[in-house]
Structure formats: C-alpha cells, structure tokens
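dude i think i finally got it to work??
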Amino acid sequence: MPGGKIILEILNPKQLKNNSGDPKDLSMLYTIDVLETKTIELNEGKHHQGKADIIQFVATK
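look at this
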C-alpha cells in the first residue's frame, strides 16, 4: 500500500546488561551499523521497567 509505514523498536546487545526485559539471548538481539541506537526508560508493565538500549526504525513506502 503506498504511504504505508513499518516501525520497528528492537533491542540491541547492550540490552543484556539491563533488567528491563527479555530476550537475554544474544542471537535474538539486533545491530544495525547505519542506524543510531538510543537508551530509553521503559514503563511498559511489570517486567519491562527501567533503562533499555534500543534501535528505532521507521520506513515509508
């Protein structure tokens, strides 16, 4: 569909040191050299609280 969007918010390997949620399996985490990573504060329920290292991606078709 023209104008459609895909939005990804995925965890990167730095997340392994945080207690804000899973996965704790390196093979399930992502790195993308051309995008910027950021650190955010999660407040998304009991097991998703605190500092998280993420990659955000938005694309428009």
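Strands lie at 5-11, 37-43, 49-60.
im so relieved honestly
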